[in-house]
Hints:
α5 packs parallel to α8, α12 (170-191) runs antiparallel to α13 (200-211) and α16 runs parallel beside α23.
Amino acid sequence: xxxxxxxxxxxxxxxxxxxxxFIIIIKxxxxxxxxxxINNNFFNRRIKFIFIIVNFFFxxxxxxxxxxxxxxxxxxxxxxxxxFGQALSTRPDLIGRNTCNFLKALQDDLKPISxxxxxxxxxxxxxxxxxxxxxxxxxMPIASASVAxxxxxxxxxxxxxxxxxxxxxxxxxLFRDFSFxxxxxxxxxxxxxxxxxxxxxKNVEVLSEVSLNELDLTLEASAADELAENFKDHPNYKVxxxxxxxxxxxxxVLEFVEGVRIDDLNSLNALKHNVKKITxxxxxxxxxxxxxxxxxxxxxxxxxxxxDQQGALVPIDFxxxxxxxxxxRQFLALLLTYLLNKNYKKVVEIHHEANMLGDxxxxxxxxxxxxxxxxxxxxKPLGEVSLAKLLGQILGLxxxxxxEVQPQFTLLQKTMLMAEGTTRQINPNINMWELSRPxxxxxxxxxxxxxxxxxxxxxxxxxALLKIPEIINKFDEIISNK
Length: 482
């Protein structure tokens, strides 16, 4: 079934969604989240004033308990909201470090399903797994997230494995949340016509489709295989081995990796890992995934990245992966380069060349507007520069300048925010974009090399070119018969 059909809702649900919206807003306001938003510089004075008035009635100013309340609220609301909280947990610049520390538990420390239910799920997937293949099974999960939980076990050949299983009814629960988000997006687009340029409903569709991989663990295994193939020659990025013979739609068995979370600085320092080198490796890997391969890990919160004993990065969750076409990658590379070089006229030009601007838009005015929002961000100390935030602000100009927002960049921007947040947590003095700048410049030069372009054209049209001799022979036969 097409993703849009799965998200569509019957008209009679509208009153239910309206009531649900009101209840959820009240629940979130009770956590004190407005107190966190008031304290940062993301909003103008008018919006902050409204936040202050609303927050006065809920009287939540104790930042020490806001994180705990927000965690409990999001966990109770459901898996879709938990994913939102996971993204927030990497943004201390937005909600503060104390709150982020509470929300980190949303990444892999949620209330697990019981071991008896877990074993029942495994038996349903492979009734001989416990008797014929496993030597031991740990009833206590090592991780429990929004969609799945992970147990460890030892195979009869002595290999330690991680056994990931989907939680019961998770597909129904996840799409219940996505359908509600879709309704909100549709309502906003109907009530505020100018907001249609943001393509909110399309963005929900994209995120929902990407999340489908999480609901079929064979697709996740396939994504891990592809990522492993892309990095088979990279010594500092190791994808765990997949045990395909035991993997099913609801159960994934993969190599267990001993390691520590990338944001566990105390353990990293105790094990004498080079944090600066880890940051550099992470930046290089992000660049290679996005620009070289166009296939990237779309859920880069710290709970999904381990550091092994040799200091290599080990991804451990492949449920959400993103793809970018070569055209998208070239646009993104030029955009980041021109922003870092503060060449705002070129930023406008590539938007125009990508047919993202209306014909009546003044390029000079748009260039000036981009300069106005870019300068305060790019003039910050290196460790505080956020290109992901800047991209979001540029997207925010869509209403005024009729910019067509591209949905395929939605997941990428979320990933960029997570990557920046993680980098800033482990090494606040490094700007990952300055580290990746030489790599991006080289990639741009390579992709615009005429010989490379010709080589790529031949590769893309190889099958058609191979038919040319056959076509010529048939043409000769037609002429000869005449």
